[in-house]
Design a protein that fits this description.
The chain is of the alpha/beta class. The protein has helices at residues 38-41, 43-58, 81-88, 102-111, 152-167, 175-183, 191-197, 203-207, 209-218, 222-245, 257-261, 263-276, 289-300, 306-316; strands at 4-10, 15-21, 27-34, 64-72, 97-101, 116-121, 125-130, 136-140, 251-255, 281-283.
């Protein structure tokens, strides 16, 4: 593989990052592009978006690709051969294509392929654990209509429900109400209906309001704090149940905009989990999911070593 490379991809609903590296871990290129969640945009567009990203990446590096490991947001388990061939279409060689869930790539960025768990809270939420035998176990990830507790979307919806209760005088006053009025540019409360149900209103845009709910927690608002505790308690209960079944997976990584950007959310989740499972060890991943995808590809080829990881981390800095 002296003149060849591997590509790792962190696929998202709105953005995707692809990184190429040599067998020794040296990162030689990175490219960003649009989302590849085919559940949202269809298989053809997702494939086209990924092809455009990979083509731009490969146009700037020498050699040939020996493997393409993709973290796919439409999956929560590895793709089988039929799905891999379907996604590959005429754009990719299915023999080189390795489709895993995006959560799995984040998990590998934390555990480096060993037993452990990742808890992801962004627009949506999901928990993924790998046991001592390499088997994957998933909790959550049911989507915005069925819950996704701890996600930005769930926090936003709970916050808006609290604001409505405040407006209608059936719930306590909360600073979340004022935050909603400003975020959605409301001249009157009933305008919220048009804002939320407007054609083209994206889940991601609505989920961003969840950050403001967490900001009100940090400012001491009791209602916002109750919303955060409710959501983080569900995540903690799921994590504790999984560790009870697989004690070796007691290392818990936290990832996603909600948990990485909000100290309040991290603290509540960690405190709740520790109450249920004192042996749990909670921390942030050392490597981002796009490098997790590369680590996965290198590990499958028995090319992973401490020096490879050090070189990968150091060489990726110039592409950030």
């Amino acid at each position: 593989m002296s003149d060849s490379y591997l590509i790792g991809v962190d696929g998202g609903g709105t953005k995707t990052i692809a990184v190429a590296a040599r067998a020794d871990g040296t990162v030689i290129g990175a490219e960003r592009g649009e989302g590849i969640n085919y559940n949202n945009i269809g298989m053809d567009r997702a494939r086209r978006n990924l092809k455009e990203i990979i083509d731009r990446l490969e146009s700037r590096i020498d050699g040939h690709c020996e493997g393409l490991a993709v973290g796919m947001p439409a999956l929560d388990m590895p793709a089988d051969d039929a799905l891999t061939r379907l996604f590959a279409g005429n754009s990719f060689d299915p023999a080189l294509l390795d489709l895993q869930s995006d959560a799995y790539m984040a998990l590998v960025g934390f555990t480096l392929g060993k037993a452990g768990m990742i808890v992801i809270c962004g627009t949506g939420s999901i928990l993924l654990m790998m046991d001592e035998n390499g088997a994957q176990h998933v909790r959550g990830g049911w989507g915005h209509l069925l819950g996704d507790p701890g996600s930005g979307y769930a926090l936003a919806v709970d916050g808006l429900k609290a604001a409505i209760a405040d407006w209608e005088n059936i719930g306590p006053h909360t600073s979340v109400t004022r935050a909603a009025e400003e975020y959605f540019r409301l001249l009157s409360p009933r305008q919220l209906i048009d804002r939320v149900y407007a054609e083209g209103q994206s889940r991601a845009e609505l989920a961003r309001f969840g950050r403001l709910v967490l900001e009100q927690c940090a400012l001491g608002d009791g209602v916002a704090l109750g919303i955060a505790r409710k959501n983080m308690s569900v995540l903690a209960a799921n994590a504790a149940e999984m560790i009870a079944r697989v004690p070796a997976a007691n290392r818990v990584g936290i990832y996603g905009g909600v948990l990485t950007n909000s100290a309040v959310a991290r603290e509540i989740f960690t405190d709740q989990l520790k109450k249920l499972c004192p042996e749990a060890e909670v921390s942030l991943p050392e490597f981002p999911p796009e490098l997790g995808a590369l680590i996965h590809a290198l590990n499958r080829r028995s090319l992973l070593s401490p020096e490879t990881l050090r070189r990968m981390k150091a060489s990726y800095r110039e592409f950030l």
